[in-house]
């Protein structure tokens, strides 16, 4: 049975936004607030309207690492965007595979999702996208090149199961891809954490100009005294 998401999801996002306000981090505050609006105002209603809800939901799911990056560095740059992009693409094989082998449950719940060959094609494209995005992490200075090599192995395995699902979009292949997604992302992020470059989590290795700095654009947004 497919159930609607618990209210705790929105409560967590709201709490995160409140924390960023108190800490005086306008970038993180703005993204966290936007996530709440996007989740509650766009993604949730779209679930019963159109399959594009998955794309909107992937944006919501990809924003948490960008929120953390913005909070730590005070800006939104290409390195933070890369972390969000990896989370964004991972969600497609994960949820498309789930939607296919739980198709009857989704239909019974009134949710509009892709399935069959269309879902498999989207899954494969995003499995493939994870390969260059992960290799970009050492290129941008987020990790050492050891992570680049490890990510190739992890993502190639993921893409193999994505290709199997695309070739034969049946329930066993969908289930296998879904189960692979459950260990693929944690392992990829663990390797990234192990091989991160010193200073990345404090913003000391930011060599690329910010794509957007909320401090510069809106210096008084969400600025409250620190406690």
Q: What is this entry, summarized?
A:
The protein is an all-alpha fold and 227 residues long.
Account of the 3D structure:
By secondary structure, the chain is mainly alpha-helical. The protein is built from 9 helices and no strands. It has helices at 8-23, 26-46, 53-73, 78-101, 103-109, 116-139, 145-167, 171-194, 214-217. Helix 3 (53-73) packs antiparallel against helix 4 and helix 6 runs antiparallel to helix 7. The protein starts with 7 loop residues before the first helix and ends in a 10-residue tail after the last helix.
List the helices and strands and how they pair.
Blueprint: H1 8-23, H2 26-46, H3 53-73, H4 78-101, H5 103-109, H6 116-139, H7 145-167, H8 171-194, H9 214-217
Helix pairs in contact: 1-2, 2-3, 3-4, 4-6, 4-8, 6-7, 7-8
Key terms:
227 residues; mainly alpha; 9 helices; 0% strand; disordered C terminus
Task: Report the helical percentage.
Answer: over 70%
| Uncertain stretches of 5 or more adjacent residues | 5-12, 212-227
C-alpha end-to-end distance: 44 Å
Spatial extent as radius of gyration: 19 Å
Kindly name the structural category.
Answer: mainly alpha
Q: How many DSSP helices? A: 9
What multimeric state do the chains show?
single chain
Number of strands: 0
Mean of residue pLDDT values: 83
Topology pattern, helix = H, strand = E:
HHHHHHHHH
C-alpha geometry:
flat
Estimated share of beta-strand residues? under 5%
Major beta-sheet overview: none
């Amino acid at each position: 049975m497919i159930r609607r998401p618990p209210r705790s999801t929105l409560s967590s996002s709201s709490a995160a936004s409140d924390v960023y306000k108190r800490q005086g981090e306008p970038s993180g505050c703005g993204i966290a607030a936007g996530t709440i609006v996007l989740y509650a105002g766009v993604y949730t209603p779209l679930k019963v309207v159109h399959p594009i809800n998955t794309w909107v939901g992937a944006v919501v799911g990809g924003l948490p690492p960008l929120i953390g990056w913005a909070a730590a560095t005070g800006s939104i740059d290409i390195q933070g965007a890369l972390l969000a992009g990896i989370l964004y693409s991972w969600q497609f094989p994960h949820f498309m595979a789930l939607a296919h082998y739980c198709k009857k449950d989704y239909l019974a719940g009134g949710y509009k999702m892709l399935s069959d060959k269309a879902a498999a094609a989207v899954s494969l494209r995003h499995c493939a996208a994870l390969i260059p995005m992960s290799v970009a992490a050492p290129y941008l200075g987020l990790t050492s090149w050891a992570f680049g090599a490890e990510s190739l192995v992890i993502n190639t395995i993921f893409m193999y199961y994505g290709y199997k699902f695309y070739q034969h979009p049946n329930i066993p292949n969908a289930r296998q891809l879904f189960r692979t997604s459950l260990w693929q992302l944690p392992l990829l992020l663990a390797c990234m954490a192990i091989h991160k470059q010193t200073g990345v989590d404090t913003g000391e290795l930011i060599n690329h100009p910010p794509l957007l700095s909320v401090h510069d654009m809106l210096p008084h947004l969400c600025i409250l005294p620190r406690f």
